[in-house]
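Memo to structure team: turn this sequence into structure tokens by end of day. - J.P.
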Amino acid sequence: METFLIPLLTGLFGWLLIWLLAKSLFFPVHPIKIGEFSWKSSLPNLIHQIPFELLIPKDADSDASFKAMQPLMEEKLDFFFTHTIKDKLPMMSMFIGDKTVAQLKVVFLAELASIFPELIGQYTQNAKMNMITSLATEMSDKLAPIVMKAVKPIQWVAFILGLGWGSVMMCLLHSI
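Reply from structure team:
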């Protein structure tokens, strides 16, 4: 019986160790404080290390991006000046002709071109913070089962390695 106990216990220890490592990513959801000691999930720390800038490039070529969107913006501004203003401000639409609409579009597009890089930078920063918050709070409940399922093969490998290591130790103890 003792011959199988040490290898079995080392195998279980390896399996449990991998389980605890994976579980520590998600538990505890709210930090546990006991005096000076504080224990919290390591998932938020890991999420803050993810380079989200690779997903949403912050320093994209804003001129090229703006020029690619310019036809859509011109179309939307044209619709705004010709239809929306007529519907919302009928008195003002009487004073706006085609020449004024063309001049307003040029001014608006120039202003949009100047604020576009700042707008994209702010959007990127907000998207990053939203992803971090979402992953750390809402997604952790969904990620936990996926990670635990993905860790199962590693747990079995750790069990088998522990079983092998325990067997080697048992053989060495019996040979002494």
